[in-house]
Amino acid sequence: MQQAIPYRSCIPTATATRHLPDSAQSNGVDPGAVAAMVSENAVVIIGKRGCCMCHVVKRLLQGLGVNPPVYELHEDHEAAVANHLSALAADTVHFPAVFFAGKLFGGLERVMATHISGELVPILKDAGALWL
């Protein structure tokens, strides 16, 4: 019997970070690296490890044809990353946080409300996540 190749759609931030400065190594995660991940992707979901709301947002976006990366944060790193992203977004960041084109869009409620109103697909097209 053949064995399946494991597939990971979620990337823990501790493994996705680059070379960390000495101050960030004590925390285990570099908030600047998370901010870089946000700026490098059209759509990014950042949430707590094992968060069911992140799964809901991801499945909704996948149903529309977007395959967003989900960056999971360990609970020890949530406050540092939230503070750093809040400073960049000029708004309070709550998890799950959904970013479109490097800008904070909102959480699950905002994504769902925008989808129900029919405005989500044009926003995804403007962000560069959908081409059709």
From TrEMBL:
SUPFAM superfamilies noted in UniProt: Thioredoxin-like
Pfam short name (any one): Glutaredoxin
GO cellular component term of the entry, any: cytoplasm
Sequence intervals crossing the membrane: none
Keywords, sorted A to Z: Cytoplasm, Redox-active center
Gene3D superfamilies per record: Glutaredoxin (3.40.30.10)
Main localization of the protein described in the UniProt heading: cytoplasm
Residue span, Glutaredoxin domain: 43-104
Localization: Cytoplasm
NCBIfam families membership: GlrX-like_plant
Family: Belongs to the glutaredoxin family. CC-type subfamily.
Name of this protein: Glutaredoxin domain-containing protein
Organism the protein comes from: Flemingia macrophylla
